Structure formats: C-alpha cells, structure tokens
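Readers of this paper often ask what the protein records in our data store actually look like. The remainder of this section carries one protein's record, kept here as part of the documentation.

:::
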Amino acid sequence: MKKHLLIVLFSTCCFAQKNVKLKTGDIIFKSMNCDLCIAINAVTEGFDHKDFSHLGIVYIKNDSTFVIEAAGKNVKLTPLETFKTYTSDTMYVGRLKRKYRKYIPKAIDFSLSQLGVPYDEAYLYDNGSYYCSELIYDAFLSAYEKPFFELTPMTFKEPNSENYFQVWIDYYEKLKMEIPEGELGCNPGGISTSDKLKIIGIVK
C-alpha cells in the first residue's frame, strides 16, 4: 500500500512539473507579489495547495503566443513573454478535459471581444468590468451556455476570524464602498481545482 502511494505521489509530482507546449484555450495560473495577493492567497486554495492570485487564457495566433487577461486597467492581449515577467514564481497550466474542448473557440471569441473592457477594481460580478477569473468565468459561461466554473461567496476576512484584512479595509475605503463580503465571485485557485480541467504541467 505504501509503495503504491509513493508511486502515485511521485507520478503526480513529476507530471505536474512537466514543461508544457501551450495550446489555445490553456489557462495559466500564477501567484503574484502584492499586498492584496497575500490576502487572496490566505483565503483561497488552488491545485495541490498552491497559491494562485492571477490567471489568463492562452491564445495562439500564427506563430505568436498571447495570454488574454484582465489586469492593470483593462482586459488585454499580452505576449506570453511579457506575462512571464510578472513574477518569478512557477506558472501552472490547466487544460480542459477532452469533452469540454469544443467550447474553447467560443470562449476565446468572447474573451477577445472584451478587449479594452475596464478592470473590475470593485471585484463585483456582472458590473460591466472584469477581474482576471471573472473574465474566464464569463467566457466559458458564454460558450457553454450555462455555468461552467463555479461562483462562490467571497470573503475578505482573516482565516478563522471576523476581522477583515486591513489591506481590504484600506482598499475599499479608497473606493468609497462597502466590502462586498459574501457576494458571489470566483478566484484563480478555485478555477484551478475545477473538475472540468486538469493541471498538466508548468510553463517556463
């Protein structure tokens, strides 16, 4: 039994560390270095207990590889090499399971149609702007014509506490709005654990 478990663990570890040749529709997950990211990582969990605070979807056109992402000021098309520079942490690649791959073209078309849409600084679903995982959620909602990934209640509180992270208090005070505790949303970690995709390796 122990020998079998060790073989499974070894295989999973090595498989997840495999450098992947990217395809259109792959989702890249990464951890970013920022104060908000630390708070996000504290209350969300990704594949294999990894911390993921950002994601984007791969789009290959001719011989060029891009990542469609909601980051900075808006939804944008970012060259892969630029996307890599955001952090030195390992980037993990999720690929849809075979039966769902037929939805990728429509999801990509939707994502491209959102280029220039403002970044969702409020982190509120369906408010005419997008944060990173919200864009991916809506892209596959549009393609699948029903929820593909999950929306879950968001929390901005410290783990096992009723106290909000100070960074979120300061953040929403600047926006002059209440912290949207309990509102439905999505996050990179949650999408990375979806049963509709598999983490197949890393991108270097």
